[in-house]
Design a protein that fits this description.
- By secondary structure, the protein is α+β, with helices and mostly antiparallel strands.
- Helix content is about 25%, strand content about 35%.
- Strands 1-2-3-4-5-6-7-9-10-12 form a 10-stranded antiparallel barrel.
- A hairpin with a 5-residue loop joins strand 10 and strand 11 (about 195-200).
- The radius of gyration is 21 Å and the shape is globular.
């Protein structure tokens, strides 16, 4: 191979490597932006009062979500931690979400707490006081994969086609759509014999982007008082 061919090959190889590196950097930057946007859409105070008004058979449910700190970590757009508190008359569900970048998606792992009661109302505290103790987290997680469907609209599904195991020996298969102004959630919950026992779509509307203590407490008290006459015993939803 003469010097000209060697030089040409070197230039082409360098250009190709640079283009690949540029594309990889662009994908990383895009996923970082998506992670940040998804968490921003997901955090706040939500309820399904509009859905309940049109369908009284649906139980009133409230959600509070907020950014939290995890021990030994620093705040980052690439990895973000979110605390979720979901309440109705028949259950209270508290979870820890970790949002990270996948290869082409935003991934979320969901963990339960050993003692969730000590965390109730966490989103009503200033962010610097929202610290999660890793020793209070139960090992293992339920994993979701979120894909950007359109502008500011993400759909998440279980990373496994078998869904996630429930505390009663069954499984839950979830679809979660997060968008500007709300969350649509469908949890198909099966018992330990494979029977479908819950399959009710829930439509949440965002009440505020950042839960304010007075507003959050007032709305929670109102929603839960309305829900007293509507028992709803499921507590295994994602």
């Amino acid at each position: 191979m003469n010097k000209f061919k060697t030089y040409t090959f070197t230039v082409l190889f360098s250009t190709l490597a640079f283009a690949q590196a540029s594309r990889a950097a662009a994908v990383t930057a895009s996923l970082t932006a998506q992670t940040n946007e998804l968490v921003q859409l997901f955090t706040g105070f939500f309820d399904n009062s509009q859905q309940v008004a049109s369908n009284p058979l649906v139980p009133p449910i409230t959600i509070s979500t907020c950014n939290v700190q995890a021990p030994g970590t620093t705040k980052s757009d690439a990895t973000q931690y979110v605390y979720l508190e979901q309440k109705s008359s028949g259950f209270e569900r508290i979870r820890f979400y970790t949002f990270t970048q996948g290869n082409s998606t935003v991934d979320a792992s969901i963990q339960s707490f050993v003692n969730p009661n000590i965390l109730s109302g966490l989103c009503n505290k200033p962010e610097q006081q929202r610290a999660i103790d890793s020793s209070n987290l139960i090992p293992g997680s339920c994993n979701l994969v979120f894909t950007l469907e359109s502008s500011r609209r993400y759909t998440g599904k279980n990373a496994s086609v078998d869904g996630c195991p429930t505390s009663t020996g069954g499984k839950v298969i979830s679809t979660l759509t997060i968008f500007d102004g709300g969350i649509d959630s469908v949890d198909k919950i099966f018992d330990n014999k494979g029977n479908l026992v819950v399959n009710t779509p829930i439509k949440f509307d965002k009440i505020s982007s950042v839960p304010e203590p007075s507003l959050a407490l007032g709305l929670l008290a109102f929603s839960i008082s309305v829900a007293i006459a509507k028992p709803y015993k499921c507590k295994d939803e994602v």
